[in-house]
Automatic annotation (TrEMBL):
This is Gfo/Idh/MocA-like oxidoreductase N-terminal domain-containing protein. The lineage of its organism: Eukaryota, Viridiplantae, Streptophyta, Embryophyta, Tracheophyta. InterPro entries: Gfo-Idh-MocA_inositol_DH, Gfo/Idh/MocA-like_OxRdtase_C, Gfo/Idh/MocA-like_OxRdtase_N, NAD(P)-bd_dom_sf. One of its GO terms (molecular function) is nucleotide binding. Residues 151-365 form the Gfo/Idh/MocA-like oxidoreductase C-terminal domain. Pfam families: GFO_IDH_MocA (PF01408), GFO_IDH_MocA_C (PF02894). Residues 11-137 form the Gfo/Idh/MocA-like oxidoreductase N-terminal domain.
Length: 375
């Protein structure tokens, strides 16, 4: 296992310090009582470097600054590397970390990679490194209302899960460095980039593996008047996706990225044979009830997690993700990452199958995606 410093401090490096990388920096600052520190960053984009350095200076954290991830790895300064660079860079960076002589534990932002083939190569390569932990940043599991709903479902309150419906109605994609997130070639497509979170949750609630996917989606409103280097963005802004699982349960995603007029950004419904649970974000409300008790028996809870010291961009979930990953790092191999590479691979595979289904106008099997994209 990668060892931490003699004083017990876990030293972090962040690769990619755009908006999400700086969000990780702030979350780790709020974890400083757990004896962690960010000691290095890597990013070729100088304005992002400067913003991260200013932020770290306000925390009294001196940073070593590198323009590339390889220099950060070679410095030997870090125990843990957070990969929060653009999606299309994940594969190369992860392979370089995995192949580096010094072991580094890794928290990689979602999606794991932009293609199934690249995800599979990373999974295979990481198997050889028993001295490293790799966790995938599918942090929606940790949002307090979602975590509460997971607990309710796992406790059997809704019975055998039959249907999982997730609605995300939100604002358009934010502007990122060099507008990298406007093109499928860079992101993997909206249903990979954005929706791997929801496919991961469906799989978790269903307690089963996905079998086939059917989707309908389009570019109807957003980014149509934008042009970058002569190219118009090709990322879809709305879709319906149906996912069938091998235990007979089904998931449905309703995505709209021009729905700013929504009270909640995410609404999750899990229905079993004896009851139903729902989670609402950002209202942070959970409801659950049984068929026997009916409408009058539905209970409403306010979900919160008192461990959260910083809500940030994702309602405290990034903070809890770091807390959980840190405990796995400190356990020195006794504890597996909560969200592993296989979870990352499957969430991408469902997204890729959904994108293909839209192109083909028919069901796409997960097997087809896994085989067709064999490395």
């Amino acid at each position: 296992m990668a060892s931490v410093a003699n004083d017990g401090t876990v030293k972090y490096g962040i690769v990619g310090v755009g908006m999400m990388g700086r969000e990780h920096l702030v979350n780790l600052y709020h974890l400083r009582s757990q004896n962690v520190g960010v000691v290095a960053i890597a990013d070729p984009h100088v304005p992002s470097q400067q913003l991260a350095v200013e932020l770290a200076r306000s925390f009294d954290w001196p940073l070593e600054v590198f323009s590339g991830h390889q220099e950060l790895l070679d410095s030997g300064l870090c125990d843990v590397v957070v990969v929060s660079s653009p999606n299309m860079t994940h594969y190369r960076i992860l392979m370089d970390i995995i192949n580096h002589p010094k072991p580094h534990h890794v928290l990689v932002e979602k999606p794991l990679c932009t293609t199934v083939a690249d995800c599979k190569k990373v999974v295979d390569a990481a198997r050889r490194r028993t001295d490293m932990l790799v966790q995938v940043g599918l942090e929606y599991r940790y949002m307090p209302p979602v975590a509460k709903l997971i607990e309710i479902v796992k406790d059997g309150a809704v019975g055998q899960v039959k249907m999982v419906a997730i609605r995300e109605h939100r604002f358009p994609f934010l502007v990122k460095v060099d507008n990298w997130n406007r093109f499928n070639a860079n992101t993997g497509g909206t249903l990979v980039e954005k929706c791997c979170h929801f496919f991961d949750l469906m799989k978790l609630f269903a307690g089963a593996n996905p079998v086939r996917v059917m989707a309908s989606g389009a570019i109807d409103v957003n980014h149509k008047d934008e042009v970058y280097d002569g190219k118009v963005p090709d990322i879809i802004d709305n879709a319906y996706v149906i996912v069938e699982f091998d235990n007979g349960s089904r998931g449905m995603l309703d995505l709209c990225m021009f729905a700013e007029g929504s009270k909640n950004e995410q609404e999750i419904s899990v229905v079993g044979d004896i009851g139903k649970g729902e989670a609402f974000v950002p209202e942070s409300i959970v409801r659950f009830g049984t068929r026997a008790a009916g409408r009058d028996g539905v209970q409403t809870l306010k979900a919160e997690d008192r461990r959260v010291k910083y809500d940030g961009l994702h309602h405290g979930s990034s903070y809890l993700e770091h807390l959980t990953f840190l405990s796995a790092v400190r356990a020195k191999g006794e504890k597996a990452p909560a969200v592993d590479l296989q979870d990352g691979l499957v969430s991408v595979a469902i997204g890729v199958a959904a994108q293909l289904s839209i192109e083909k106008g028919q069901f796409v099997t997960i097997q087809e995606v896994m085989d067709e994209y064999h490395g």
